[in-house]
Amino acid sequence: MNQTAKGSMSYLISIVLVAVLGGLLFGYDTAVISGAEKGLQAFFIGASDFTYTDAWHGFTCASALIGCIIGSAMSGYLATNLGRKKSLILAGLLFFVSALGSMWPEFLFFEEGKATFSLLIAFNIYRVIGGMGVGLASAICPMYIAEVAPSNIRGTLVSWNQFAIIFGQLVVYFVNFLILGEHTNPVIEKIAEGVYQVSASSDPWTIATGWRYMFGSEAVPAGLFALLICFVPETPRYLVMIGEDNKALAVLRKINGTVRGAEILDEIKNTVTVKTERLFTYGWLVIFVGIMLSVFQQAVGINAVLYYAPRIFADMGMDKPMVQTVIMGIVNILFTLVAIFTVERLGRKPLLIWGSIGMAIGAFGVAATFGNADLGMVTMISIMVYSASFMFSWGPICWVLISEIFPNTIRGAAVAIAVAFQWIFNWIVSSTFVPMFNMQVAGDPHFGHWFTYGLYGVICVLAAVFVWRLVPETKGKTLEDMTKLWKKEA
User: Fold this and answer.
1) Which of 62-66, 299-303, 314-318 comes out lowest in average pLDDT?
2) Is residue 354 a contact partner of residue 408, using CB atoms and an 8 Å limit?
């Protein structure tokens, strides 16, 4: 039997690998600020026309999230009207422009190396542009993979996108480390509430140049992604939606083989009768489930751990918080692989439920032991359990379900709404963690610690109940089966 008759796994893997580069850029762009933020803060503290306060630094570090919300909200319109492939090309170009603009925000309009308020605004605009790329990639990369993948391995292939996100974060940590080299981060001294100055002993190279190279390094993977995505096909589902049945059949045959490709084309044509349908054509429940999957993925509090791990470990009294952070990163990678290799065997629901229970145990363990010096090791293990449980469940599996749970004709708009909620709750959790964590009641310095993780533990329990009662199992089902499933519910 020839390759066309049985389909080409190497062809499928090659186009999926290109698509997951978008996930790697997602992780790269959101984590690059962690290495650059001190140099960036020191640079803008030197401005003479305004005071670079804590509030401005917080906004600057998080400005990409504004773009993430915009990009994810736009993704449905773009995926439906431009197609999945062209939307990903646009995302790659946004990443590329953002990387170069963040490295050199003075381009054309401002004096080189002079920190001003106008330059800060320009820098944040470039970060928002990058965030728009992240928002687009976060919604459309899993959608693209789901729409080209055969149903029996779809969950595994979409899960690789989450692996790419975590791997992208680790790559940029390593790149930032190499860029910093023998240089040191600046020493910043507090002179008033929310106001700082740079110590005279600080390394001037880090302040003037180091952070620029960190942001600029993203241009390499971004340019590669934008170029390579031009050579992958549009998804068969979208091609059928715009009446390009012959092109869809060619792609399906390359992936699935001659006979099965023709069968899948008939299945798609039976469900895609028009380019789009009204959002609530299949009832409110499918939209609600998609939104709540996104809300719970963020509300369980994982980004409070990922973004602030060194701070948390330092507050626990650990001598080398960066070592514990690296260990946690390695654990995260390993447990993401657990999901990749079990999602098609165990299914989506069991992984989500067991992950929620594991996270709840970890969160309650942190709440019960944080601040007790004798139980420091228990606290650290609890955080590791909490993080690892997320990585084999809500981390990858949420993206799998969002990419496959919606019927073909509303997928673009529905995914956009779900992912926009994800970024909104990412911002809510990230911005509320530090105030909650540092909260004191009746002089108790640890009240905020147990309250914060106790709250996350309760949300994890609610997440398990939500999945058990409302989320359908999609293992082994085709994307066309989703139409039949939700028609019964409507």
Assistant:
1) 314-318
2) no
